[in-house]
């Protein structure tokens, strides 16, 4: 594939606004690029999440071993347009950089994988069975990857490379923390503050939960050698009606970053157990909801997959890719639930400008990424 065509594909996907919505337009476009190769056995499937939102699964080649590539189609909101030098959805090239929302996170990675796969098809040199999974909703909860996983569409993989930006492809993220976001509601009984015995103080009950849950979670003190310890924060809290009333309602939200040493079920057991204990007391009415919890992603810095990626990186880029851990969740946190026991890593083009105004990717890095993914696929299958 020539560079001009590769750049047009990247421009096209960036020009499609997919701020937590509209991924089907990207999926349809990418599907149209693979459609001419259906005579080579290419299969194309769209898995609808909701109207206007579709995951895309494309499989090329054949064999018993399946190499997976993945990327998300959604982007974050561009924010205040006055902070941008250009329209975030009109891709603009300046001084070797392509600027636009999603240029770094992560439409350049997704487009690079697509271009690598298309190049294999054009050359009729597909080294083995390769599956592309393009997801919806990564930026707001990884629910596209969750849907794909629940549908069993990632069960047959032997390895998965997610094309998230990793410091201009200088790093390989092979392990990462999970996340448990939760929301606790406390219901009380309103009364005049001069007669508090006639009411039930929802705020006091909620604060009792907040103090005790932090203490119990602090006892989960394993330390991962790369990711460190589990962390827990109460990030939002509000309640009450007015200053001279016993508060009849209160609520808080918390954010927990988990490590592979503790599954999310361990966290649920701590929180649910405490809620049950408090609700056994007279007048307590606490409830909890979990918001898109993500499992931690375990990994091995010395795995054959990481070593192969380092070898190919040295060949393509002239430098060794450094294995690192990540503190944030990604689609990998959902794919770890697949039935297949396979390694998952993240490596992709991009800059440190993700989620910022004037987000950009180096076009040179983008083209190198295409070559990297194609060569990696060949060497993965021993070609």
TrEMBL record:
GO terms for biological process: diaminopimelate biosynthetic process; lysine biosynthetic process via diaminopimelate. GO terms for molecular function: metal ion binding; succinyl-diaminopimelate desuccinylase activity. Keywords: Amino-acid biosynthesis, Cobalt, Diaminopimelate biosynthesis, Hydrolase, Lysine biosynthesis, Metal-binding, Zinc. Its EC number is 3.5.1.18. It is an enzyme of class 3 (hydrolase). The keyword ATP-binding does not apply. The keyword Amino-acid biosynthesis applies. It catalyses: N-succinyl-(2S,6S)-2,6-diaminopimelate + H2O = (2S,6S)-2,6-diaminopimelate + succinate. Pathway: Amino-acid biosynthesis; L-lysine biosynthesis via DAP pathway; LL-2,6-diaminopimelate from (S)-tetrahydrodipicolinate (succinylase route): step 3/3. Its cofactor is Zn(2+); Co(2+). It comes from the Bacteria. It holds the Pfam family Peptidase_M20. Residues 175-279 form the Peptidase M20 dimerisation domain. Belongs to the peptidase M20A family. PANTHER family: ACETYLORNITHINE DEACETYLASE (PTHR43808), PEPTIDASE M20 DIMERISATION DOMAIN-CONTAINING PROTEIN (PTHR43808:SF8). This is Probable succinyl-diaminopimelate desuccinylase.
